[in-house]
Amino acid sequence: MNLKGRSLIIMLLISLFSCFSNQAQIKEKVFLHESCQSKSNIKSELNEAQFVLIGGVPQWVTIKGKDCSNPIVLMVHGGPGNPLSMYHDSLFQDFEENFTIVHWDQRGSGKTYQAQFKAEKLTLDMFTNDKLSVDILVKDGLEVSDYIRNRLGQEKIIISGSSWGSFLATKMVHAAPNKFHFYVGLSQLVNGDKTYMESYKKVKAIAVERGDKAALDILNKMGPPSWSHPSSFGKLRRIIRRYENETASNPVQWKVSKEYTSEFSDSRYAVFSEEFSFLKYIGLNGDGMINDVALDECCTDLKIPIYIIQGNKDLLTVPKVTKEFFEKIVAPDKEYIQIENSGHDANIDMLNMQLDMLKAGAAKYIKKE
């Protein structure tokens, strides 16, 4: 081949490489949503569900709302491993009238787990080789927050979390308060050791009062925490759920959306993502992320307004621990709301109060332009 021919090929390759590079950069950019670009179409509904590259991992993010100018709420799900994105739209339809609601399947959860792991079964190697940690999840959450702020063109968002999600959201607020208007927590997880110790004592007292021999046999056999075997946490949780079934029921809308039918036929979504996240939380020998859950030791200085909603009959994140943490919080404003006859898991009274506090906070802390 002559020199001229070689030069043409080299120029062509450079051109192609440049083209592909530009495409890769475009995929990594965050573009302002078309509904947020012009005042003329600001009433356009938002309905977006897609994988977003967060921390180098494709993570599932959904955005739904009626009006791009509405305040944005990032819902941080609990578990870990229990995403909210799968639930029917009717669960949050009242929220979406006044807010743009964002759900994020955390690393190791739901559709994000499906994107991370292609194997049909959870293996020991998969579990041990993955270095999921509180720090990684906090960084992911802040990156998701930045994505939302840029995507929807708002400087700050509201953040709300329940149970495990309340711990993660509080860590995010502590790390970067400038990204958030205010925080609404439900069934606040404060401290791993204190939570399970107080939970164990409370549940055992109820079992003694009721003469519940089956529960007492289990509780006495495993003894009080700290525990090294994951099954102990599961045994306590099952007793808690049995007792809490007597409190306010789950909302009628608490059903899986038809869009997620195929996900629930995939064991990676329906089974293994929750198992993976739970084991990462507890650890195979009591050495999981739970040991890094201690908000009362690291995160009482919060620089944004705080709302905490607590069920008075919560047997997992018991009110005693939550209230002690609340009293330690230093914040511009804070409010503790107790819901009567309410346990740990979401129910209609807690959801209604969550919406009320979001509305109250938005009216008080978000300036109208």
Automatic annotation (TrEMBL):
<dbReference type="InterPro" id="IPR000073">
    <property type="entry name" value="AB_hydrolase_1"/>
</dbReference>
<feature type="signal peptide">
    <location>
        <begin position="1"/>
        <end position="24"/>
    </location>
</feature>
<dbReference type="InterPro" id="IPR029058">
    <property type="entry name" value="AB_hydrolase_fold"/>
</dbReference>
<keyword id="KW-0645">Protease</keyword>
<feature type="domain" description="AB hydrolase-1">
    <location>
        <begin position="71"/>
        <end position="349"/>
    </location>
</feature>
<dbReference type="Pfam" id="PF00561">
    <property type="entry name" value="Abhydrolase_1"/>
</dbReference>
<dbReference type="GO" id="GO:0004177">
    <property type="term" value="F:aminopeptidase activity"/>
</dbReference>
<dbReference type="InterPro" id="IPR005944">
    <property type="entry name" value="Pro_iminopeptidase"/>
</dbReference>
<protein>
    <recommendedName>
        <fullName>Proline iminopeptidase</fullName>
        <ecNumber>3.4.11.5</ecNumber>
    </recommendedName>
</protein>
<dbReference type="GO" id="GO:0006508">
    <property type="term" value="P:proteolysis"/>
</dbReference>
<keyword id="KW-0963">Cytoplasm</keyword>
<dbReference type="GO" id="GO:0005737">
    <property type="term" value="C:cytoplasm"/>
</dbReference>
<keyword id="KW-0031">Aminopeptidase</keyword>
<dbReference type="InterPro" id="IPR002410">
    <property type="entry name" value="Peptidase_S33"/>
</dbReference>
<keyword id="KW-0732">Signal</keyword>
<comment type="similarity">
    <text>Belongs to the peptidase S33 family.</text>
</comment>
<keyword id="KW-0378">Hydrolase</keyword>
